[in-house]
Each structure stands twice: as C-alpha cells, then as structure tokens.
Amino acid sequence: MKIISRIKKYYWAVALLLIAPSVSFADYKTDPNGYTFQNPINANSLPELVKKMFDAIIQIGFVFIVLAIIYAGLQFVLAQGNPEKITKAKSVFLWTIIGGMILLGAAVISEVVCNTANQFLTTKISSCKF
C-alpha cells in the first residue's frame, strides 16, 4: 500500500513538472482573435500593489475594530453590575481601542511611506491619498 502511495506522489510531481512549463510559456499578450490581457489588479508597479493590499487590510481591520467595540458594549450590558464581568468588559474595550490606535498609526505610517516613496520613484504610486 505504501508503494502505491509513493507512486502516486511521484506521478503527480512528474505531471506537475511537465505541465508547468506549458503554462508558464503561454502567450498572454494577444490571442488569435486580437484580445489583449487586462490587468485585474489595476496596479502598475510592485509598490502600488503593496499599497493597495495594505489599504485593503487596513479597511478590513477597521471593520473588526467596530465589531470588537460592539462586543465590548454588549459585555458591559450583560454584566448587569457584576464587578468581575465589568472588569473584563473594560479590558476588552481598552485593548480594542489600543488595537484601533495601532491600526490607525499603521495607516498613517503607510501614507507617509507612500508619499516619501513617490518623491524618489520614477513610476509614481497613484493610490497615495495626499
């Protein structure tokens, strides 16, 4: 049984090695019908791609911060005067606010780095907001 498992592993490895070059050497610019390849990312350089990915992560992070604040508020309501639960709710709220400040600081640092990089790059990062 182990021999069959090994043969399957080697079979897939060899198949992948034979298929990979045909995929990597595919013509991506135009096909016989005259269609051209469209860039789905809308980023023309690596720094612009990194900036767009970081902006998306920041936006998702702010959604989680809002949900965590709602969760902390719910814990305050459900504590019903219990000092231990109120202490836990305060802790959740405090760490949520600290996380939000860190996320906001990361967004500011990202903008500063983006604007600084634009001063030195020949291809400007178009997604800088300032």
What does this structure look like?
- By secondary structure, the chain is mostly helical.
- It has a domain at 46-120.
- It is built from three helices and no strands.
- It has helices at residues 2-24, 46-79, 83-120.
- α2 packs antiparallel against α3 (83-120).
- The longest helix has 38 residues, at 83-120.
- The chain is flat and about 70 Å long.
H-E order: HHH
Question: Biggest β-sheet, characterized?
Answer: none
Number of strands: 0
Computed structural class = mainly alpha
Q: Name the helicity range.
A: over 70%
* Oligomerization state: single chain
**Over all CA atoms, what is the radius of gyration?**
25 Å
Strand fraction = under 5%
Please mark out the parts with pLDDT under 50 across 5 or more consecutive residues, or reply none: none
Quick overview of this protein structure:
The chain has 130 residues and is mainly α. It has helices spanning 2-24, 46-79, 83-120.
Q: Which labels suit this protein?
A:
mainly alpha; 0% strand; 130 residues
Break the fold down into its secondary structure elements and pairings.
Layout: H1 2-24, H2 46-79, H3 83-120
